[in-house]
Hints:
The chain is an all-alpha fold. The protein has a domain at 488-595. It is built from 29 helices and no strands. It has helices at residues 4-15, 27-35, 40-55, 59-70, 74-81, 89-102, 105-131, 152-170, 179-196, 202-225, 231-248, 256-264, 273-278, 287-297, 302-310, 312-318, 322-335, 358-365, 370-383, 392-405, 409-425, 430-440, 449-461, 482-485, 492-495, 499-504, 507-524, 535-562, 568-593. The chain is elongated, with a radius of gyration of 33 Å.
Amino acid sequence: MEDLSSISQAIQEALDPKPGQEEPFTLLEIVQGYLGSKDPNVRHLVLEVLNEIITDGSEDQIRTRKEFIFGDTVLSYLPLLLPLHSDAPGLVETLVEACVEVCSPREAILALNESCQLLEERAERCDVSKDGMDTDGDDDEDEDEPVHEADPEDLVDEFVVVVDSYSKVFARMPRIKSTPTLMTTFDAISSTLRCLLPGCTSSQASTLARGMASLIQAAYAWVGRSTDTGGEQRAILTQLLHMSIALLIPRTRPQTLQAWFLAHFPQYALLHPSSSQSSSPNTGSTPLAALHTASQTLCIGLPDLIDLISQHSSMSRVSPYAPLSALTLIAHRLALPTPISPDAESEKIDLPGVDDLLVLLSSGLSSSAVDAAGTVAWEAVHRAQVGEIDSASPLVEILMPLVTSDPDPLNRLAWFKLSQALVEKAPPGLDQILLLEQMLEPANPYDTLRPQALSLLRDLLGRPPSSSTSSSPSSSVLQSGLLDRLPLLPWTEHLELSTSEFIEGPNGAFVTDQLLTLRLLYELDKGDVTGVRSEPWMGRIRKSLERVERKVKEMRGGLEEAGAGNEEGMRVMEEFFWARLEEAAQRLKERIGQA
C-alpha cells in the first residue's frame, strides 16, 4: 500500500512540473489511477491530498489551483468523485463544489446531466445484482466486480450532491438561451428522481426537497437574465416543482393533517401530547415550506392552485403530478398558524365544495398524498353546511381503513372525526342512515369502526333537527327504515365467541354499544317512528337480552373457575368488561319492561 507522502509527491510533481521536464502522466491520469484503486485507504488518501491542495494557501493560490486541476476536466472528474461519496462525504462534496465553481458553466451542466445518467445505470446494476445474488452460499468477491459498489441510499446521497451542484452552476450561467438547457436538465433530473425514489429515506427526501427548491429558484433567476424569457421556461420549472412535491413531500411526513386538526380542535391535543408536539413544526423551515417558496418564485398563486384541483380530470392527462402537488401546497397553506402575508384577505382560499373535489380527494386519499388530501377534505367538509354534501359515501368508504389502520393515534382520531363530519353534513335523514349502514354493515371488515359508528348514531339521535323550519323536535335520523338498515341487535356469531375473543377484540364492545343504542332509541322514539316499540321488535329485543344474559352468566362462571390462575390486572379488566355489558343489558331490560 502506498503512503500519504508518496501519493502527495506524485500529485505535486504532476501539479508543478519542473521546467523542461516532460511528465510521463498528466495529473488527471495520476488521480484516475489512484481513485480506481481497490484499496479504500488509497482512494481516501488521494481525496485528502486533493482537498489539501485546493484549500491550503492564499485566495489567489487556491483559485489558480482549482482552475488548473478542474478548469477543463469536469466531465472527467465528476464520474470519478461522486461514487466515492459514501467513503468520504465531506471531501467529495468539497471537491465537487470546486469543480463546478471554476469550470465552464455549460460544461458543468453537461457533466451533471451525464452524472444523472450514470446514477441511473448504477441503480439498475444494483437491482440486477440483488436479483442475481448467489443462493449457494458462495460469497467470494469476483475480481472483475466494480470497485465502488453502492446501495440505493448511497446513490440518493450522490444525487443530492448533483442537485446542489445544479443550483451553483445556474447562478453562474451566462446570458444565453435558457430553454434548451432547462429541457435537458429537466429530463435528466426527473428521470433520475423517479429511478432513485424507491431507495429514498425520509431524511433524504427532506434534503432533496430543499435542494430542488433551491435549484428551481436559481434556474428561474437565470431565466430572467437569459435571452429567451417566454413562458416555456416557467412551464418546465413548474413541472419540476410539481414532480418534486408529489414524489418527495409524502416521504417527509409533512403532518399537515394533524396541524390543521389540532388548530380547529385543540381539545384533542391533551389526549395525544406526543403526536401534537410533533405535528407543530416550524412551518418556515420544513421541506414543504421551501418548495412553497419556490412556487411563489414561479408566481404560482392560489387561483392557479385552485384551478389545478378543480380541473383534476383534464389536467391529469397532461401533468400527472400537478393536481396532487397543488393539493399539497393548498394543504400547507391551510395548516399554517398565521396567514402568509399581512393581508389576510389575499390569503383566503376559495376552495371548491366536497362534491366538486370528490374525484381528486378520492385519488389523494388512496395515494401517498393522503395527508394533504385529508387536510383539504377536512377544510372542505368543515366549511360545508348541513345537507350540502351529497357524495359522502365514496369518501367514507376510503376513510374506513384509515380510521382503523393508521399507525398514528391522532391521525386515526382525525380520520374518524372526518367520517363523522361527513355524516353530519350529509342531507338529514335517510342519507345519514345509509352512511351509518355503510360503516356498520356485516360486510364491512373494519370491526373496530363499528363501536365508533354506534357512538356517532347515539350522538345524532340526541340532536334536534338543525333546520329552524322543522316542526318536529325529534332527531332527523329517526326514520322508519332505521331498524331495517342498521344492525342494532347483537349478532349470534359475536355471542358465540370465546371469552378471550369476545373481550380482547372489538366485538364485545360492539355488543355493549348495541344495547346502549337500543335503550336510547327506545327512550327517544316515543312516537314509534322507527317501530322499535312495536310488539315484533320488542320480542326480538327480549330474545337478544336473554342470549346476552346467558353469555354473561357463562363467562362469569368461567372467570370464577380461572380465579387465581389469572393475573390480577387481567381479572380486573375482565370484571369491568362484564359489569359494563351486564349493566347495559339490565338497563335496557328495565326500560322496555316499563312499557
